[in-house]
Amino acid sequence: VGLGEIALKNGDKSAAEKLFKEAMATDKKDAALTAAVARAYFNVDPVLYKKEIDKNVAKALKDSKNLEPAVYVLQGDMIKASDIGQAAGYYEQAMTYDEQAGHINPEAYVK
């Protein structure tokens, strides 16, 4: 996924998509992996790749049955510039779902 993000930053969308597809082939139902792909698109250009981001966020939520914390952290990051209250809600969801799984998500706590 990291190599795909680098390819996107260098303007090579087709190579990036190939790398993302290879990564996704390792585990098609891994919501954290799908969220990482969405994060890569978001980090490069959230406006240009909005369609890809939304598609991957929706897939990650569906695959995890709305329980993947990485998706909520990403959604919080996506909205924090326009609605800090909603972003805080997403971060809180990430903390809650991580705690239910027996983990602590330091990223969600810090944000």
Q: Structural class from helices and strands?
A: mainly alpha
Mean pLDDT: 92
Q: What overall form do the CA principal axes indicate?
A: globular
Number of strands: 0
Q: Estimate percent helicity.
A: over 70%
**Which CATH-level-2 architecture of the largest domain?**
Alpha Horseshoe
Largest β-sheet summary: none
Beta-sheet strand percentage? under 5%
Termini separation: 23 Å
Kindly report the oligomeric state of this protein.
Answer: single chain
**Helix run count:** 7
| Low-confidence residue ranges | none
Q: CATH first level of the largest domain: which class? A: Mainly Alpha
Q: How would you portray this structure in words?
A:
- The structure is a single chain.
- The chain has 111 residues and is mainly alpha-helical.
- The protein is globular and about 35 Å long.
- It folds into two domains: 1-65, Alpha Horseshoe (Serine Threonine Protein Phosphatase 5, Tetratricopeptide repeat), CATH 1.25.40; 67-111, no CATH class.
- Helix 1 packs antiparallel against helix 2, helix 1 (2-9) runs parallel beside helix 3 (31-44) and helix 3 (31-44) packs parallel to helix 5 (69-79).
- The chain has seven helices and no strands.
Characteristic key phrases:
0% strand; 2 domains; Serine Threonine Protein Phosphatase 5, Tetratricopeptide repeat; 111 residues
What's the SSE blueprint?
Layout lengths: L1 H8 L3 H14 L4 H14 L5 H15 L4 H11 L4 H17 L5 H5 L1
